[in-house]
């Protein structure tokens, strides 16, 4: 192997071992043995386990930040941006599971750029710009933008950590449900959320028709009940009149 190829091999092996066992549970001996080299080769490239771990963490943080930022920049309207960002995170988790496991572990002093929390704060900072525009359009207090950005990013990241292990339902469905809650709130949840605007429109139309039928049925039942009440009241009134005339 060339020096570059050997370096990439060691990074791949270290990444897999750190994801499985964590920093403290992984040794230079294991990394070297998996690569089929001696320990000095690992030291030559990274200066030790700490240096290898720092490069792995830096790469994963940059990769995740890049995919989420790209999704936020390339999305259409605000809902589309949120959908694409949630989907990008889930895609990263699915395709780079080892990297995500390393990031969400408790941060270690050997990590060069900090912890997963610092990465989420950076993503939240980029979300603030998008939320700030939306808040300004509606006349909301812009002082609360940072707080809402943290809420959104926290909700998506925690859902991602849960989905990392269960992997059900599919990532598109998970993203749709996350956005459903974030966009509509509990009081306005869509019965069957989807990332496809056409499907959402059809479901909305179906729900509206269902609501119209329910309202019409309720109105019809109300008229029927009122008629029954009137028929019940009329004989009672007639009997009362007869009694008052002394004819009963």
Could you describe the 3D structure shown?
The relative contact order is 0.07. It contains ten helices and no strands. It is an all-alpha fold and 248 residues long. The chain is 78% helix and 0% strand. The protein starts with a helix and ends with a helix.
Distance between the termini: 115 Å
Largest sheet: none
Query: By helix and strand content, what is the structural category?
Result: mainly alpha
Assembly annotation: single chain
Poorly predicted ranges: none
Average predicted confidence as pLDDT: 86
C-alpha Rg (nearest Å): 30 Å
* Shape category: elongated
**Fraction of residues in H or I helices:** over 70%
Furnish the topology, listing elements before pairings.
Blueprint: H1 3-21, H2 28-35, H3 39-46, H4 49-74, H5 78-95, H6 97-104, H7 116-138, H8 145-166, H9 171-184, H10 197-244
Helix pairs in contact: 1-2, 1-4, 1-6, 3-4, 4-5, 4-6, 4-7, 5-6, 5-8, 5-9, 7-8, 8-9
Short description:
With 248 residues, this protein is mostly helical. The protein has helices spanning 3-21, 28-35, 39-46, 49-74, 78-95, 97-104, 116-138, 145-166, 171-184, 197-244.
Features:
248 residues, mainly alpha, 10 helices, elongated
